[in-house]
Amino acid sequence: MLVLKLAWRNLLRNRRRTLITIFSIASGCALSFFFFAFQAGVHKKTIDDATRMLAGQITVEHPQYRDAPKPSLFVPSVAKVKTVAEKMPDVELVKPLCLGNGVVSSAAGGIGIGFLGVEPDREKELSQIARSIVKGRFLESSDVDIKGVVIGERLADRLHVDVGNKLVLTTTNAQGDVVEELLRVVGIFKLGSATMDGALIELPIAVVRRVMGLTEDQATQVGLVLKRPEAQAMVLAETKRALAGENLAVHPWETLLPAIATWVSAGDRANQVMCGVVLFLASFAILNTILMSVIERKREFAMLLALGTPPQLLRIQVFVETLMLGVLGSGIGLALGASFAYAGQKNGIDMSDSGAAGTVGGMALDPHVRPALSTEDAVFVAVVVLVVTTLIAIYPTLRSSRVDVANTLRSQ
Amino acid sequence: MTSIVELENVTKEYDLGATKVQALGGIDLTFAKGEFTVVMGPSGSGKSTLLNIVSGLDRATSGKVRVVDVDTMKCSDAALSKLRLEKIGFVFQAYNLIPVLTALENAEYVMLLQRRPAAERRDRAKAMLDLVGLRGLEDRFPRQLSGGQQQRVAIARAIAAEPVLVLADEPTANLDSKTAAALIDLMEKLNREKGVTFIISTHDPAVVARAHRTVTLRDGLIAKPATAPDGMGTASKRITEGAPSPIGS
């Protein structure tokens, strides 16, 4: 109690200096925490868009499909996977997909593309493509009859086709035969990614099944979209366990989208390093304050040692003062950073004019960012401050008890 | 009378690099329990050095030093710190209170280090502040007290833990004559009524006039025989004349 009382009152001795120090640490913490939340928001949105548009956070497919994606390597019973997945409360929905590669041709020529067979009604709520239609409309269940397709804007330009025009899709079916299908463009989308806009088409899964020669219960992938991304590891383990005897592979999204996974991981590391550097620099304000305080109180320390104060008590007192600055600074900083991030989360931050648009793994980054607050990031920032503060405290702490008592008191 | 401090042929030499300065040149001195002794002498005569060696804040270069039956020459720093904490009270020249603690908390401080129960600490600190005439000022911080009041708090702190010896290094140096006189009255009263042993280094003739015994130092040596006007004190009185020159230069 004595140490805490002395430390707190000593900090209040020079209020202005203490406030400036706390402000410095708080600024570093607020900045770091906000950047974490901002980046987490970008990551979360990108992963969410990619997994919802493609094969979910968890994908079930044929064990050899990753090595050689062929229509013959399909999931034999979507219903079986659905039965397993729908028992898990964290699974929001199960989406069967039929992926493939082929060539689409118009009067202007043919272009190699990837095609995505989806359930139109369900996809309307899920897919970024549905939200990115710039001409025409998104797919509807009735498009099975007219063999409707939505294509990227760049592809439409290259093929010189528009809404209402016809295309021919040429691909191979599950039996290894080359097959063709006449499609009608019902919509044109613009995702902002050259890959997606120039080489992707989306059409009803029923049409793709027919083209590929698959039954209504077969698909190349079954994606599980989760209610909470944090439940991924648990659902993955549970799905693997439940499908253990089915000759099926269960993958997390990181396996299917390695470029995005690497980008997220590298971004997190870079942010952690930046946070460490910012907080290390900010912590020098603490070093300056405590060192000044120790130097100014040399006579006081000499007097305390003369009275019989154990040197370790002085060291603990200085350490606690340093720690108090760190704790107060990081507490206020985290509160400020969280407030800014929360405001950004509520209102969104529009980065479309910043020129920061880009793509990762073929996915366009959404320029409308909503920072994502996370306890882990707050704990990380607080721990970094405490570790840096502890390191910074070493020198002044040791110096506090290294006083030549007799000489110092003599020179008063 | 029981001796509380015994110094035998104590020397102290300061190494200033190219020069060595002898602050004490072989002191033989004994202070008895219950004495009110003044150590006087001009600046640089070795008064503070003598007090520092008695308190264990500084170590003698040679000789024997016994304080409260402890051979301080053989003690570790930690043991000396413990000796000061448990047996010795200090009154410094420049008040030297802890600025962030109130008068009451300052008076309690040494007892707190001694881990005495809170109630006992508080009662005793209050009683000591009362004794030094500071009733009603317990909650004031040092900056809210005058110089004389601060020095009274320092005395209250020095005696609150019931030390067997109080060392006061020029306690009246920064006080006006009226406040200084009141402070001397107080210390003498504590000596008389509580039996606290005081060793006071000073230039102040008013303090010297009240001493039971004076020891005069000049150039690190006892310059004239110690006196014991009340018949108190059994100090060995060695007169060593001649100022030592810096050596080793």
How does this model look, in words?
The complex is a heterodimer of chains A (412) and B (249). Chain A has 412 residues and is of the alpha+beta class. Chain A folds into two domains: 2-49 and 261-411, no CATH class; 55-255, no CATH class. Chain A is built from 15 helices and 14 strands. Chain A has a six-stranded mixed β-barrel with strand order 2-3-8-5-7-6, surrounded by four helices. In chain A, α1 packs across α13 (311-347) and α11 (258-296) crosses α13. The mean pLDDT of chain A is 87. The N and C termini of chain B lie far apart (43 Å). Chain B has helices at 47-55, 77-87, 103-113, 118-131, 147-160, 177-194, 205-210; strands spanning 3-15, 20-32, 36-40, 62-67, 70-71, 88-91, 165-169, 197-202, 213-218, 221-227. In chain B, 33% of the residues lie in helices and 27% in strands. In chain B, a hairpin with a 2-residue loop joins β4 and β5. Chains A and B meet through α1, α12 and α15 of A and α1, α2 and α3 of B.
